[in-house]
Amino acid sequence: MELSESVQKGLQYLADAVHFDLKSFSAFTEVAFGSLVSRSECGLDHPQLNHIDQSVLKHCHIATTTFILEGVKQNADKSTLSSCLEDVSFDAERIDVFYSSYQHHKRSLETLLESIGGSPPHVTDVLWRLDYCIKNSHVHKVNQPSYLISFHVENGDCGTSSKEVNFNCTMEQLQDLVGKMKDAAKSLEKATQS
């Protein structure tokens, strides 16, 4: 697995017995996995972690959760994880502690990653209406057309969840929107041809 320099540095802090003894390492590992599985607060206020500098703790948490998710995403086995952890100075005992937590939480993390949509919401239909504003709320004459636009949007891959995005715009704003959408369509067409 390819790991960024920041992730490697965070894991090196975690491997260092000066920062994390075995008890605090074990507690930290459970906190890191737990924060991903439960999608709640990361729990860095655990009593076993009170003596560790907060900036080091946060850096290690980000590095560890990144490493965990990358491992689950790539379906990494024990030898792959062990090799990566050895590269950042983990000893055999810490690797075993980490891997047992990894195995315990792997299925939950796979489910978490599967639940994340692979594509952004997309527009499936557009409705519009032209209104003509004669006066505003201050009883001043306006005499301007106004367009009410309604985009029907479906979320992600499944297409089951939909909503409407409504907005009001002037003729100039509508022309600008249409121009930008045409530019985006041309850019997308060029990108798919490359």
What is the strand arrangement across the widest sheet?
Answer: 1-2-3
Helical region count?
6
Low-confidence stretches: none
Order of helices and strands: HHHHHEEEH
Instruction: Report the major sheet.
Output: 3 strands, antiparallel
Rg to the nearest angstrom?
Answer: 26 Å
Class of secondary structure makeup: alpha+beta
Anisotropy-based shape: elongated
- How much is the average pLDDT? 86
Relative helix content: 40-55%
Q: How far apart lie the N and C ends?
A: 28 Å
By DSSP, the count of extended strands is: 3
**Tally of domains:** 2
Share in β-strands: 15-25%
Pfam family, one: COMM_domain
Family: Belongs to the COMM domain-containing protein 3 family.
Organism: Alosa alosa
Domain COMM: 122-192
Description:
This protein has helices at residues 5-15, 22-38, 54-73, 78-87, 92-115, 171-193, and strands at residues 122-135, 141-154, 162-169. It is α+β, with helices and mostly antiparallel strands and 194 residues long. It folds into two domains: 5-115, no CATH class; 122-193, no CATH class. A three-stranded antiparallel sheet has the order 1-2-3, with helices on one face. α1 crosses α3 (54-73) and α2 (22-38) packs across α3.
Identify the notable features of this structure and list them briefly:
single chain, alpha+beta, COMM, 3 strands, three-stranded antiparallel beta sheet, COMMD3, COMM domain-containing protein 3, 194 residues
